[in-house]
Write a structure and sequence with these properties.
Layout lengths: L12 E4 H4 L17 H10 L4 E5 H4 L6 H17 L3 E6 L18 H20 L4 E5 L4 E2 L7 H22 L4 E5 L8 E2 L4 H9 L7 E3 L3 H6 L4 H11 L6 E2 L18 H13 L6 E3 L11 H25 L1 H10 L4 H8 L3 H9 L4 H5 L5 H13 L3
Parallel strand pairs: 1-2, 1-10, 2-3, 3-4, 4-6, 6-8, 9-10
Antiparallel strand pairs: 5-7
Helix pairs in contact: 2-4, 5-6, 9-10, 10-11
């Protein structure tokens, strides 16, 4: 009998409400599933073992709702979440669906649109705080251009920064326990999107007025759309202490944003992403931002949810097997042969370290002859993933 791999709250899995509420529409065809209310989505996710849910403001409160309607819906979301032991882990603002944002929100050429975007974001931050979210994500889906003559990217990024700085002050002024994360994407729906990669979002964070409040929310699919390695991007953010949230899913490289169920593609790369999160004991939520296939029924949506969590737990088990495999670990020890004295010399600059390094005798030819059994290491990793080790 197949192992259950049943998720628990301790696994800290989360799903965007938009993932399970997705009705299967695409640019070439309408919905294939009936609507799902956010409250039913929250309830079912909690019952299935998810730790948290992520949401756009308009996932719970429809655009244009009155203040009274807004308060009623947010209260209901909180009550449903409490009833199944689930919590909001991330909030964000929908600044891409309404046509007012057709040419950007924070980077629009029109100051009135930019002001409306900041106003809307403040409302979404308030919602996030009320529901307990500690991370607020900026996905700038419309922050870009098709026509380079239409915008100066330097000015657009300046405006983006001004909006983020303003909202940082809003969070501090209100005493919210919340940090911001930029979600990079190279293109779609815009031809080119500003802050296209994890590296560009990371650099942007350090230019803000409160860099300690700004991190990155990488999405594996967006990284692979750029032809980059998601394992490398995630590790760069881990090393910098800037991985504030993560969106897990699967993607065939260099395609449109497919948002395939986590683990369904790029298995080896997904394994190493899980390995990074587990080995570095990252404390954040393992959030899934992908969608059920358009061919799925209403009940198939929950097969998708179960599949995402199951795949992560299977890969987590494979990580433990990799870390405990004597042959694999022996090869890694051989490859990463340590020289503590040299490592200490290079760790920090000093006159003594300079003198010692200059006096040190090296034999480049001998070093070049050192065996690096990467073929064997990669094959063993593949065999482990294929279940024959």
């Amino acid at each position: 009998m197949a192992k259950a791999y049943k998720p628990t709250k301790a696994d800290k899995f989360a799903f965007g409400l938009w993932t399970v509420m997705n009705r299967g529409a695409d640019p070439f065809g309408g919905p294939t599933r009936k609507p799902l209310s956010p409250f039913d989505a929250i309830r079912r996710l909690g019952e299935m073992g998810a730790y948290g849910f992520e949401f756009h403001d308009n996932d719970i409160v429809p655009f244009g709702s009155s203040a009274a309607e807004r308060d009623k819906l947010v209260k209901k979301a909180r009550q449903v979440a409490d009833s199944v032991g689930i919590r909001a882990t991330m909030a964000t603002c929908n600044m891409f669906s309404h046509s007012v944002f057709k040419d950007g929100a924070f980077t629009s050429n029109d100051a009135r649109v930019r002001a409306f975007a900041v106003q809307k974001a403040m409302g979404a931050i308030d919602m996030g705080a009320e529901l307990g979210a500690k991370v607020f994500v900026f996905w700038g889906g419309r922050e870009g251009a098709e026509v380079d003559a239409s915008k100066d990217p330097a000015l657009a990024l300046k405006r983006y920064r001004e909006a983020v700085n303003f909202l940082c002050e809003y969070v501090l002024d209100n005493g919210y326990d919340m940090r911001f994360a930029v979600e990079p994407k190279p293109n779609e729906p815009r031809g080119d999107i500003y802050l296209a990669t994890a590296g560009s979002a990371l650099a942007f964070a350090y230019t803000c007025a409160h860099p300690e409040m700004i991190g990155v929310n990488p999405e594996l699919e967006h990284i692979r759309m750029s032809g980059l390695n998601s394992y490398h991007e995630v590790c760069q953010l881990l090393e910098a202490g800037k991985l504030f949230d993560i969106h897990l899913g699967a993607q065939k490289p260099l395609r449109y944003d497919q948002d395939i169920r986590f683990g369904a593609e790029d298995l080896k790369e997904s394994f190493f992403v899980v390995k990074a999160l587990e080995d570095y004991q990252w404390k954040g939520t393992r959030a899934f931002d992908c969608h059920p296939y358009r061919t799925e029924s209403e009940e198939g949506v929950w097969d998708f949810v179960a599949g995402c969590m199951r795949s992560y737990l299977i890969l987590k088990e494979k990580v433990a097997a990799f870390n405990g495999d004597k042959e694999i670990q022996g090869l890694l020890a051989e490859i990463g042969e340590g020289h503590r004295a040299l490592e200490k010399l290079m760790r920090s600059y000093s006159c003594e370290a300079v003198a010692a390094l200059k006096e040190r005798s090296f034999n480049p030819d001998a070093l070049a002859r050192k065996k690096l059994p990467y073929e064997k290491l990669d094959q063993l990793t593949q065999e482990l993933l294929l279940g024959v080790r």
